[in-house]
Automatic annotation (TrEMBL):
SUPFAM superfamilies: Periplasmic binding protein-like II. Gene3D superfamilies: Periplasmic binding protein-like II (3.40.190.10). InterPro entries: Bact_solute-bd_prot1, SBP. This is Extracellular solute-binding protein. Coiled coil: none annotated. Keywords: Cell membrane, Lipoprotein, Membrane, Palmitate, Signal. Residues 27-43 have a biased composition (Polar residues). It holds the Pfam family SBP_bac_1. It comes from Paenibacillus tritici.
Length: 531
């Protein structure tokens, strides 16, 4: 990818690498912006004659993609309102696949702004525009979003990701930083390893040795606990050691489906063996995240696969009663010692999540555009990254330094918990920047460097957009296949069926139309490359 560039005055002010575009490793906090941000005068940023805040005291409705009730109004929301002049009334969320979302569309009573994964819309984003649910943003970006427009002009790699094959812009994107693209992987009790004179496991064989020791010498009832989403689809899990992943990906320019590959059969055979030996949680097929947390923090389990913040959460929970406890990241397992696994966890810079589309029925398209465009201004970027000057950071020699509210919180909150209230570190339509947020436990900051050591980048399928007809056909095929492969995977691991039958299952996937699905994905991939 090319480096993300602001114009020269903004570059001098920010001095940040907007890592979503593939910039170099993160800089220290003291290399961040050198000019004030967040005061009243600075917040009136000129852009083609327009200045914030927007007059008129408008209120817009905003629906998140996270299920649940109406979100709590946070200090960052208050600050956004003050700076933009636009009040946002947040509504309870509904993900694209939720029935609630379908009912909302059918009702015709749409929010002004939808935050969702529009790549998953039936028929694709173009279909959502054609059906009159969301606006095509091309002309509106030219008129009302100069900051997003400049960002896309300066970064054609990002521009390529966030539009459809026919050039339609349908949403303001959440673009992950280079480091933010990796945020999950294996987590292990490092103190148990030290106690047993074992090293961090790097291969499948070493993982087998470690988990066996956890069971026999630490009396861990479930040495490895995890949810099914981490088996090999959401991350490479342990499947990456076998050169496969349970999803669509690219091998040498050709789209493949991991479940069809011989390596997946080998992987399932190994997992079935581990399950028979009592190394994998006997309840893994049905447990939820809270149960995994409980097992990891009570000594029932010594390893899992999860997100980075789990490390901080587990250490905080356990070390109060057991100061020697030490949860840390372990590398994704490889086939051979010293080798790299083919897969781990890696998102595209634009994965389609947290994309803000504007309702076709809104009465205030300009206000919605202006509010969303603020995140792509110099000051919006500062707010989303560092929070509010004087509260979460101060400027020393023109450089932001976190306050004690963040680094020594009087209520014992972690720095990430504080910043969740005062900034948007993730899952918000913006270009994510590395905030160099201090972590309470070194293992938390070490994890990303450990988990990113894979060959996943060479296999990553970009955010392709099948045509409406292709998307409908793809959905019809994959709904059946997805259910089939999940059931088959579990039956084999749980010992309800023999691995010897896997070739028969591959044929059943072919009978269900996986070949046609691969043709559709390949065509969409080639169109993406030609955008």
């Amino acid at each position: 990818m090319t480096s993300l560039r602001w114009n020269k005055p903004l570059a001098a002010l920010l001095g940040l690498a907007l890592l979503a575009a593939g910039c170099s490793s993160p800089r220290n906090l003291d290399s961040a912006p050198s000019s004030p941000a967040g005061n009243t005068s600075a917040s009136r940023e000129a852009a083609g004659g327009f200045t914030y805040p927007v007059p008129g005291g408008l209120e817009l409705t905003y629906m998140n993609e996270q299920p649940g009730g109406t979100p709590e109004r946070l200090p960052v929301d208050e600050e956004y309102e003050k700076r933009t002049g636009i009040s946002i009334r947040q509504l309870g969320g509904a993900p694209m696949t939720d029935q609630k979302f379908s009912l909302l569309l059918a009702s015709g009573e749409l929010p002004d702004i939808f935050l969702n994964t529009w790549l998953q819309y039936p028929g694709g984003p173009d279909q959502a525009v054609e059906q009159g649910y969301i606006l095509k943003l091309n002309d509106l970006i030219d008129q009302y979003a100069p900051n997003l427009k400049r960002t896309l002009q300066e970064n054609p790699d990002i521009d390529k990701m966030i539009k459809t094959d026919d050039g339609t812009y349908y949403a303001f994107p959440f673009i992950r930083s280079e480091i933010g693209r990796v945020y999950g992987g294996p987590i292990i009790r490092r103190d148990w390893l030290d106690e047993l004179n074992l090293s961090l496991p790097e291969t499948i064989e070493e993982w087998h040795t470690v988990l066996t020791a956890f069971k026999e010498k630490k009396q861990a009832a479930s040495p490895l606990t995890l949810r099914t989403m981490f088996l090999g689809e959401r991350t490479g899990g342990f499947a990456g050691a076998f050169g496969v992943m349970g999803n669509f990906y690219v091998n040498d320019g050709k789209v493949v489906y991991g479940y069809l590959e011989p390596g997946y059969k080998e992987y399932l055979n190994t997992m079935s063996q581990w399950y028979r030996e009592g190394l994998i949680d006997k309840d893994f097929a049905s447990i939820d995240a809270a149960t995994v947390d409980k097992k990891m923090t009570s000594g029932v389990s010594g390893a899992t696969i999860g997100w980075q913040y789990y490390i901080e959460k587990y250490n905080s929970a356990v070390q109060a009663g057991d100061p020697e406890a030490d949860f840390a990241a372990a590398p994704y397992p490889s086939a051979v010692k010293g080798g790299l696994p083919e897969f781990g966890q890696l998102d595209n810079a634009y994965a389609g999540t947290s994309s803000a589309a504007i309702s076709a029925t809104t009465r205030h398209p300009e206000a919605a555009m202006r509010w969303l465009d603020y995140a792509f201004t110099r000051e919006g970027s500062m707010l989303n990254t560092y929070g509010i000057e004087g509260i979460t950071y101060t400027l020393e020699d023109g450089k932001p330094v976190y306050t004690d509210l963040v680094v020594k919180n009087p209520d014992g909150l972690g720095s990430d918990q504080v910043m969740t209230q005062y900034s948007h570190g993730t899952n918000f339509p913006m270009i994510q920047q590395d905030n160099n947020l201090p972590a309470k436990y070194p293992a938390t900051t070490e994890s990303i460097g450990i988990w990113k050591q894979t060959n996943h980048e060479s296999h990553l399928l970009p955010p392709v957009t099948p045509t409406a007809e292709e998307a409908d056909e793809m959905s019809s095929i994959m709904n059946d296949i997805h259910t089939f492969v999940k059931e088959t995977e579990l039956k084999i691991i749980l010992g309800m069926d023999s691995i010897d039958h896997y070739d028969k299952y591959v044929q059943q996937m072919k009978d269900l139309g996986i070949g046609r699905a691969l043709e559709i994905q390949q065509a969409a991939y080639e169109r993406y490359l030609n955008r």
